[in-house]
Amino acid sequence: MEKTTLTLDQKYKFYEEAVQNAEGEVETLQDLYKSIRKKKAKILREDFCGTGAVMCNWVKQGEEFKSFGIDLDPEPVVYGKENHYGKLSDEQKKRVEYIMGDVFDTDTEKADLIIALNFSYFIFKRRKQLIDYFKKVHEHLDEDGVFVLDLFGGPESMMPLQEKTKYDDFNYYWDCDKFNPITHECLYHIHFKPKGGKKVKRVFTYDWRMWGFAELREILDDAGFSQTIAYWEGDDNDGGGNGEFFPTEEIDNCDGWVGYIAALK
Ligand SMILES: C[S@@+](CC[C@H](N)C(=O)[O-])C[C@H]1O[C@@H](n2cnc3c(N)ncnc32)[C@H](O)[C@@H]1O
């Protein structure tokens, strides 16, 4: 019988290869912070950190950089401690901390940069929950602090669709199962097919509300942020994005997009 499950190592290795670029993310975040505050961010808080890939890469920038991340699920944290934290030097390890907790009620020291990536805050389906979370973030930012969140959208992301991408060791499937145009509640799954194995369905499931630029910026304003900046991705001239983001207020629409918002304390 062929196996129909993945090992923990496969699960998070495939996830990170398909949906994350932790090193690139550190560079993008630092560039973004520098363009706003004219200096480097030193202390990073990674909300919904999962394996903590970004915060572990953060401390590789040098001895003055420090990071901590919050997640309530021990499973990705265990993987991250072994595969990211475990590979840092003893000196770097002293500057990283995994915090098992809920982003709503975990008190941390203040950070220069707080991030909520891979749309993790989409789990908050009500405006009231989101504003409470954003207020918590605001409270934990330093005076020059910046909160960065990503978002996605476009008509393609709202239609039932299964998108397949091939990698060396596996195939990755992004599956839009349901989208409710009235509530913007949506259900997505990630499936993986290891090389030579059977497709393992619903390795990750996301039961979300898809929030848009306009409403998020209003909610961030209401949570006390002084300014928000919208970032749009550059074009690769082949129907896709080039991984580089620029601030803008006006842009042509497209079928599917990913963007960032920087919210300033
Ligand atoms: C979509 S994953 C994102 C992981 C990682 N940040 C990334 O960019 O790929 C969402 C993570 O949020 C965590 N999570 C969900 N609700 C949370 C909460 N209220 N407080 C802390 N973590 C939470 C889950 O355990 C999961 O690891």
Instruction: Please mark out the parts with pLDDT under 50 across 5 or more consecutive residues, or reply none.
Output: none
**How do the strands of the widest beta sheet line up side by side?**
3-2-1-4-5-12-10-11
Helix and strand content put the structural class at: alpha/beta
CATH superfamily of the largest domain: Vaccinia Virus protein VP39
Please report the total strand number as a whole number.
Answer: 12
Biggest sheet character = 8 strands, mixed
What level of helicity do the residues show?
Answer: 25-40%
Overall pLDDT, averaged?
Answer: 95
Q: Compute the separation of the termini in Å.
A: 56 Å
Strand content: 35-45%
CATH architecture of the largest domain: 3-Layer(aba) Sandwich
Bound molecules: S-adenosylmethionine
CATH topology of the largest domain: Rossmann fold
- Under the CATH scheme, which class of the largest domain? Alpha Beta
Overall shape: globular
Measured on Cα atoms, how large is the radius of gyration? 18 Å
Tally the structural domains: 2
What count of helical segments does DSSP give? 7
Q: H/E order of the elements? A: HHEHEHHEEHEEEEEHEEE
